[in-house]
């Protein structure tokens, strides 16, 4: 059992929520975490769509054009429903997103796991991650738009990068915090 320090933290670094938080704070924290997680999922759908659209050179993607079909891309691709070009675009889009999330959420763990292969592979991994992040921003800028003109494209790219970088991780942490508070 950890002993308490001042301000609600324990010796092992975890936070203890005592009687100072009411249930409405717990519900608000859970609700905000769920909303952030939903926005993250919406951003993931848009980011996958912009990556595929950039590779296939199709039209613009806007915030109002989100398609739940993107979550069926992998099963449909594996069952052979897509032509080769679209299947390759789907594979690359999902691979880029997985590397992007590894960079944001598990950077230290991924570096530690790859370090056993040597310093060259670690540098290769870091350069690959940077290229994935840059590709996401470039495809979001060129395909996605919040309005018209370059400012709309730039706003979309920055918004998607921000949402995909932080909302998923923060949403999960808020849900865990709200659960502990209740």
Order of helices and strands: HEHHHHEH
Average pLDDT rating: 80
- How many domains? The number is 1
Q: Walk across the major sheet and give the strand order.
A: 1-2
Radius of gyration using CA atoms only: 20 Å
Would you count the extended β strands for me? 2
Q: What is the tally of helical segments?
A: 6
Q: Determine the N-to-C terminus distance.
A: 20 Å
Low-confidence stretches: 1-7
Judged by helices, strands and strand pairing, the structural class is mainly alpha
Largest sheet: 2 strands, parallel
- What spatial form do the alpha-carbon principal axes imply? globular
Range of strand content: under 5%
Helix content: over 70%
Characterization of this structure:
By secondary structure, the chain is an all-alpha fold. It has one domain (22-181). Helices cover 71% and strands 2% of the residues. The chain has helices at residues 23-56, 73-78, 84-105, 107-115, 119-143, 149-181, and strands at residues 61-62, 144-145. It has a two-stranded parallel ribbon. α5 (119-143) packs across α6 (149-181). The longest helix is centred in the N-terminal third of the chain and has 34 residues, at 23-56.
